[in-house]
Amino acid sequence: MQKFVGTGVALVTPFKSDKTVDFEALMKLVEFNIDNGIDYLVINGTTGESATITKEERREIIQVIAKVNNKRVPLVLGIGGNNTASVVHELQTEDLTEIDGILSVAPYYSKPTQEGFYQHFKAISLASPKPIILYNVPGRTAKNMEPATTIRLANDFKNVIAVKEAGNNVQQYLELIKNKPADFLIISGDDDLALTVTLAGASGVISVIGQAFPKEFSSLINLGLQGKATEAYQQHFRLMKVIDLIFAENNPAGIKAVLQQLNITSDEVRLPLVKASDELQKEITNFVYNF
């Protein structure tokens, strides 16, 4: 589980102007992040536009990332959904040889009860050949998985090793940190709260902004893990503005606009997402230019 302590980044999927996957840019992005100190990579998450990526594209994305990575850092793959049987089937049939862990989002749209969350992840735990990181993001799923449910899963299933908590609720983070089993990881899914909750006892972050500023973001998380709050917040304050900017309209349009300014990827996204507005693009350009 220590391999998931620190800074993970939820990779974007770069696209060319014709909306096909830009594998050259993807390789550049992976190398940039590994070279600059991130601890692990997350593939096929929300930031990777997983909802519009085909299974064939996903397999090729995994292959390309695994080849570039060459086992230097752990790889986490997003496999989740609101059809439990389909998620279980995917876990049982996909080639997960290169994958170190599974990030599985709480069921969206269906709005299950807390018992429904539990039974969903129980089925996934029993099917998964890899460690599982639960993913609670009520702003996208429309239903919060309460801390008691997360802790129940952590206690009942040894391969449920962590939660990526993205409710943007400090009290919920603190409840998880207070009541979790000793070896269970609380991972921030909120870039703006990552340092605060790491200082409180969380194990780091799965970040969006981290892939654009991997050296700086990894540094502040490492300082947070060491309890060096003053030094860590100096780094955090430098990045506060751009964290707000990348989530001002939609994710990943904001982070792709940043990555375009850094000459790593284009800012292309797939519908129903659209590129960042001209006004937001200008603000992002100004931040990157002056950083």
Please provide a written account of the structure.
The protein is of the alpha/beta class. It has a single domain, classed as TIM Barrel (Alpha-Beta Barrel), CATH 3.20.20. The chain contains 12 helices and 8 strands. It has an 8-stranded parallel sheet with strand order 7-6-5-4-3-2-1-8. Strand 4, helix 4 and strand 5 form a beta-alpha-beta unit. The model has no long low-confidence stretch (mean pLDDT 97).
Structural class of the secondary elements? alpha/beta
Shape field? globular
Number of helices: 12
Biggest sheet descriptor = 8 strands, parallel
Multimeric state:
single chain
Distance between the termini: 34 Å
CATH topology category name: TIM Barrel
Number of domains: 1
Radius of gyration: 18 Å
Main attributes of the structure:
single chain; 291 residues; TIM Barrel; 8-stranded parallel beta sheet; 13% strand
Break the fold down into its secondary structure elements and pairings.
Blueprint: E1 6-10, H1 23-35, E2 40-43, H2 55-69, E3 75-78, H3 84-93, E4 101-105, H4 114-127, E5 132-136, H5 138-141, H6 147-156, E6 160-165, H7 170-179, E7 185-188, H8 194-200, E8 204-207, H9 214-225, H10 229-246, H11 253-261, H12 278-290
Parallel strand pairs: 1-2, 1-8, 2-3, 3-4, 4-5, 5-6, 6-7
Helix pairs in contact: 1-2, 3-4, 4-6, 6-7, 8-9, 9-10, 10-12, 11-12
